[in-house]
User: Fold Ribosomal RNA small subunit methyltransferase E from Xylocopilactobacillus apis.
Amino acid sequence: MQRVFISNELTDQITLSGEDYHHLIEVLRYQKGKTFEVADKLGQVAVYEVNKINESKKTLDIKLVSKNDRDTELPVEVTLICALTKGKKIDETVEKGSEFGANHFIFYHSKYSPVKYSDEWGQKKEERLNKIALTAAKQSHRNFIPTVTVQEHLLWDELEFQTKFLAYEKASDSKSDLKERLSKIAIPSSLCCAFGPEGGFASKEVEEFIEHGFHSISLGRRILRAENAPLFFLSVLSFYFEI
Assistant:
């Protein structure tokens, strides 16, 4: 069943327009009586049916059919902090990461990021990635749309999380094992993990993360690609906290 997101709360009657009208009516050719799901800003989900189509105004009136109490979110709010990489690798991280349950993505320019950063480039990339997150959230029936932020430097004062991890390929002692780390904490309300680019972190960057309360973790014996490491991390969280 199709799902759309609205910025307000659910009500008995809702009017849709813009991209939602275009997709449901002009692309999918929905007619009166057709049902689909709507998720609001609070994460509430309900089934609605098409009640009236106004082609001249390009608006769509829908009415409530039934509430849907299914929660598709991870039991912990997860933020992925990822170094910028070249090409469309971060597109895949956002798309798949949204499907795997991430709530927020923060992309930053690290020392070994193979891209030339500018404010204009960052703004365009952020807009594109948020569209990818929205599409992925619809496809995977998320209750919330993940957010994506692209910035040149990390804003340390804004990185306030109950648990903070740093995925570091040189973290090899037993205390750095992800399973070991997770076994020693209750389900946190918020959790983040930072990931480097293909070239890894500079030693000074690692020191800076540690100074700001991040705990280094190992993602196993194998070296993962930059776009795959966050997905592996989310898979482990899903297995550990959900299954």
